[in-house]
């Protein structure tokens, strides 16, 4: 655990997420989807975690590379990485989730606007908190799959709200931890320096089978652009949202 983790209390709810997975499935362009039902993991609480770190090339920048050329033996000395460099503080990734329930209701769970959702009542999706420091714990969304019959589709996304676009300076990963079976990983390793949002993974009820599908689609706008891309049909405003009539 890093030193600065102890400076703030953890806000992760005490949800039962099952035993820790010992192996993983990485969703890629070649293998974009996996069935939770076939994994025996379509019940209990699904934990969706966002974590990120600065890309190595951005810690120290060109001055570090030049220093190694001048003093090659420094390569064998361990690096001292500051916990909160200016670059790290400026990278603030937020995790969100668009939801559509089988009764037709739609909405969003996200830090912006304080839409943290609810786990045991509609939408059965809840955000644990807003991590602004890129701590190892990251941000987490919980999905209550014990109410799977009420969930039609979900879209997990990541966005940079009020800071300079920096997807090209971060290495981000979204990991799904089912109540049973291997964890599911999606890497955001594509370089899109001007993008502000990314649709990462969708979870859809396909004839009773819950399918997790890699999306990884970067857009240059915010949630409204993701909405249009996936046909959610919400009305958006800065800091709030309402459903269309």
TrEMBL record:
InterPro entries in UniProt: TerD
Which domain of life, per UniProt?
Bacteria
The protein in question is named Tellurium resistance
Tell me what organism the protein belongs to.
Answer: Streptomyces sannanensis
């Amino acid at each position: 655990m890093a030193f600065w983790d102890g400076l703030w209390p953890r806000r992760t709810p005490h949800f039962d997420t099952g035993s820790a997975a010992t192996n993983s499935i990485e969703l890629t362009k070649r293998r974009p989807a996996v069935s939770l039902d076939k994994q025996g993991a379509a019940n209990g609480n699904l934990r969706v975690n966002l974590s990120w770190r600065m890309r190595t090339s951005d810690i120290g920048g060109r001055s570090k590379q030049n220093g190694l050329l001048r003093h090659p033996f420094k390569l064998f000395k361990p690096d001292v990485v500051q916990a909160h460099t200016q670059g790290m503080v400026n990278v603030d990734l937020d995790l969100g989730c668009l939801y559509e329930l089988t009764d037709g209701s739609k909405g969003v769970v996200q830090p912006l606007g304080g839409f943290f959702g609810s786990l045991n009542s509609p939408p059965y999706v809840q955000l644990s908190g807003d991590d602004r420091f890129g701590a190892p714990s990251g941000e987490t969304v919980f999905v209550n799959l014990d109410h799977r019959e009420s969930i039609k589709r979900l879209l997990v996304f990541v966005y940079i709200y009020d800071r300079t676009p920096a997807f090209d300076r971060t290495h981000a990963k979204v990991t799904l931890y089912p109540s049973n079976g291997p964890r599911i990983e999606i890497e955001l390793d594509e370089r899109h320096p001007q993008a502000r949002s990314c649709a990462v993974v969708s979870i859809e009820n396909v004839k009773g089978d819950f399918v997790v599908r890699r999306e990884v689609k970067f857009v240059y706008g915010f949630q409204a652009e993701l909405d249009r891309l996936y046909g959610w049909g919400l009305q958006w405003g800065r800091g709030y949202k309402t459903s269309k009539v």
